[in-house]
Amino acid sequence: MPQNAEPPPHPAPETIGKRIARLRAERGWTQQALANRLAISRVAVSHIEMDLSIPSERTIILLAGLFKTAPHALVAETTYPQAKAERLPLTVLAYSEIELELARLEGDLSWIERLADDHAWRSRILEALDAWSARLARFEALELEETEREQVLSARRTLREASDRLEANRHPPG
Q1: Fold of 16-85
Q2: How far out from the chain centre does Cα 173 lie?
Q3: Could you give the 3-state DSSP secondary structure of residue 42?
Q4: Using CA atoms, how far apart are residues 153 and 106, in angstroms rounded to an integer?
Q5: CB-based contact 33:48 (threshold 8 Å)
Q6: CA end-to-end span of the chain, whole Å?
Q7: Residue 113 near residue 169, CB atoms below 8 Å
Q8: Secondary structure (3-state) at 78
Q9: Cα-Cα-Cα-Cα dihedral of 34, 38, 41, 42, to 10°?
Q10: 88: region left, alpha or beta (phi > 0 left; psi from -120 to 50 alpha)
């Protein structure tokens, strides 16, 4: 390289809006679906993605949780203001309401299995199974991403199997 030649320019950092748009698109979410998850308007999401507005620290924290990453990783090497980035927490909650509820269902099914043969618990177990069935039905009615929908359908099958086993124990063959 000649002495007078300038080094090649560094590529411009990705804008925070473009990164958010890319991550949203990778998950197959519409702007409206992301807006619903963030409790903001679709127009606000559009303005963020077009870099017409800078997302607040609260929005970055929520986005990091939705995208299952650390807030600092979400804004790293972007145009997000350094002063705002310094105020972000190191970690965030990175699971959805659906994931939390399905973990609770797993716990409930565990105690149901242990108590299934105890007839004193039968009415409480049936109440729990009915409540979970109603909860899963509400989840099925929501706009879910594909992995969440599959998790809910799998939970529905597991719940049905537990209910069938309980019914089989109630009326043994023979």
Answers
A1: 434 Repressor (Amino-terminal Domain) (1.10.260)
A2: 43
A3: helix
A4: 14
A5: no
A6: 90
A7: no
A8: strand
A9: -10
A10: beta
Q: What is the pLDDT of residues 105-148, one digit of tens each?
A: 999 999 988 888 888 888 899 899 999 999 999 999 987 878 88
Q: Name, in order, each residue with C-beta under 8 angstroms of 94's C-beta and a sequence gap of 6 or more.
A: 64, 65, 68, 69
Alpha carbons 15 and 42: distance in angstroms, whole number: 19
Tokens of 7: 């080094």
Q: Return the residue matching tokens 């409540």.
A: 131
Q: Cα angle vertex 10, ends 7, 13, to 5°? A: 175
Report whether 72 contacts 87 (CB < 8 A): no
Per residue in 34-57, pLDDT (tens digit) is 999 899 999 999 999 999 999 999
Residue recorded with tokens 């990783």: 73
Contact status, residue 87 vs residue 113, Cβ threshold 8 Å: no
- For CA atoms 48, 51, 53, 57, give the dihedral sign: positive
